[in-house]
Amino acid sequence: MGTNTYSEVWDLDVFFEGGSGSPQFAQHLQETKQLVAEFKALVSNWEPKNEVREDAMDLKAIVDRFEVVTKKVRQAGAFVSCLQAQNTEDSKAALLRGNVTGLNAEFQIVLTELNQKLTTIHDDVWTGIVAQDRLKELSFVLSEGRRSASERLSKGEETLINALSVDGYHGWGQMYDVIVGTMKVNVNEDGTNKALSVGQAANKFSNPDRSVRKNVFAAWETAWADKSTYLAKTLNHLAGFRLNVYKQRDWEEVLKEPLDINRMKKETLDAMWQVIADNKMPLVKFLERKAKLLGLGKLSWYDLDAPLGQAESKISYQEGAKFILEHFSKFGDEMTTFAKKAFEERWIEAEDRDGKSPGGFHTYFPEDSQSRIFMTYSGTPSNVSTLAHELGHGFHTYAMRDLHTLNRHYAMNVAETASTFAEMIVADASVKNASSEEEKLALLEDKIQRSVALLMNIHSRFLFETRFYEERKGGTVSVERLNELMTEAQKEAYGGALEEYHPLFWASKLHFYITGVPFYNFPYTFGYLFSLGIYAKALEEGRGYEERYIALLKDTASMTVEDLALKHLNVDLTKPDFWQRAVQLCIDDVEEFLRLTEGK
Ligand SMILES: [Zn+2]
Q: What is the reported pLDDT for 3?
């Protein structure tokens, strides 16, 4: 490896010169607007003739145009996201965001109309159409859109539902933000009373001082209890709206929509949770050990994020990059070459400076086939993981670079496959290379905490949400009952490992109020374990696995997860075996942690 010094500031000028004031970008937006309007006309004017040859020809023309327009819209969205993230004060970028959102919404309406038109084609004609050249490879996605439209109500009824959702369904979702935005958590710190925002209070749960955590938690529960009447009303109406729409569409299962979105079967979901439920014991033992290390009999909710105390070593950006490249190269050449290119060609914005937005993300500029990664690198081991994580997302889009746009929309449950995979490579290497036992423990704990979050916390959310929706079918669910359902779900999901639980978690967790995506929980756990399962396979197979890994990534957006796993991993996701192997990796970490802390 050379002595490269990688830039910590990305290059956006290569796309559009001049940032949010770019005339070139203004031109791009203008063109995109024009293209969306033309695409809209193309779709509106199309009347399927129920004739294989002719309809196939028209549909080919439509998907070709779709490809061009999508790239334009995505390119614009990616650029604006980067502008907003690199400088939160960029008011011109905020205005551009409005334009892009509007274009996107218009584009989505056209797609809905397209799917509705597909439903007017008879089944036998349809089979003929999607068997044609160039449509064959898109048949899964096209048929999925057609089926999904056919399972809905008439165009007029769905339009009415969408219109009413703005002030109904989504309105309740926004109501949650309004209530939470005005909330204060009142704590007494060193004799003075402080009114903390919800976010500020949440940060205190990782404070090393237990009395601080305990104090904040008491104030936290009081604050949520004060608002619980409003929040229960909000949750009940939001859920009621959703259930009512499902009822009108004759959808009996509340899980139908989230399962369809994630292209998976109920049997798969059940198999996954069953394996998790059967393997709580190692994680319970971890929590017991953590309690012991903190000098406690049992952990409480507010101890879960408590640090075990460690002096973190700093890693410079250059060292971090080198570490990632070194360990990627043990897995395969393509991933290494990709990451190297990202570092060298300034695809990454990592500089630690003021005015950047928090967090990290990856985005893709389809017209240039280039990725951009955003984060703030301050030299912690978790920064290195984040960097590897986002590079993993980049590699996923790279693996799909030659596919038609329609075959690139992967669902949430597989979206984190490549990112988690890349992160695992680096996290495992970090644990192995730790410079002291203390550091090794801290890194291991970090990994295990993630398993606790995904196999316990998210599990409790899923248990609560399914049970709540069932009860809601019979009428409004009271605050007391919500608290009860939540506590039961937590006790079950944490294997009874905690002393005190968080009954008002249904109020404090935003995810229950997100209307854009229903059941915003199990896809996280699925994605994590799915990726671990693939990682386990890669460990078995060694360096030669990369080619097959890329083939798997390529197919992530054009088949069901069951077919994907069968084709590329030769496993049946509806059976426990695959999940058991994935969970075993989490258990291995716990066992090592228990060994290292024996007698401490
Ligand atoms: Zn991610």
A: 53
Find the 114 Cα to ligand 1 centroid distance in Å.
30
Residues with CB under 5 A from ligand 1 (ion): 419
Q: What is the C-alpha separation between 130 and 121, in angstroms, rounded?
A: 12
Ligand 1 centroid – CA 417 distance (Å): 9
Residues in contact with 108: Cβ distance below 8 Å, sequence separation at least 6, in sequence order = none
Q: What are the beta bridge partners of residue 196?
A: 185
The alpha helices in 371-478, defined as continuous H runs, are 381-399, 412-415, 417-432, 437-452, 458-472
Ligand 1 centre to CA of 421 (Å) is 10
Amino acid identity of residue 178, one-letter, is: V
Q: Which helix (H) or strand (E) element contains residue 584?
A: helix 576-596
0.85 surpassed by pTM: yes
Q: What is the amino acid identity at position 21?
A: G
8 A C-beta contact, residue 301 and residue 498: yes
Residues 436-456 have a mean pLDDT of 92
Q: What average pLDDT score do residues 438-465 get? A: 94
Q: 40, 110 in Cβ contact below 8 A?
A: yes
Cβ(540)–Cβ(552) below 8 Å: no
Ligand 1 centroid to Cα of residue 430, in Å, is 19
Tell me how far the alpha carbon of residue 78 lies from the centroid of ligand 1, in angstroms. 16
Q: What is the pLDDT of residues 271-325, one digit of tens each?
A: 999 999 999 999 999 999 999 999 999 999 999 999 887 656 789 999 999 999 9
324-356: pLDDT as tens digits: 999 999 999 999 999 999 999 999 999 999 899
275-299 CB burial, b ≥16 within 10 A, e <16: bbeebbebbbbbbbbbbeeeeeeeb
- Going from the Cα of 320 to the center of ligand 1, the distance in angstroms, rounded, reads 19
Which tens digits make up the pLDDT trace of 159-173? 899 889 989 999 999
The answer to whether 178 touches 513, Cβ cutoff 8 Å, is: no
Q: What is the mean pLDDT of the chain?
A: 94
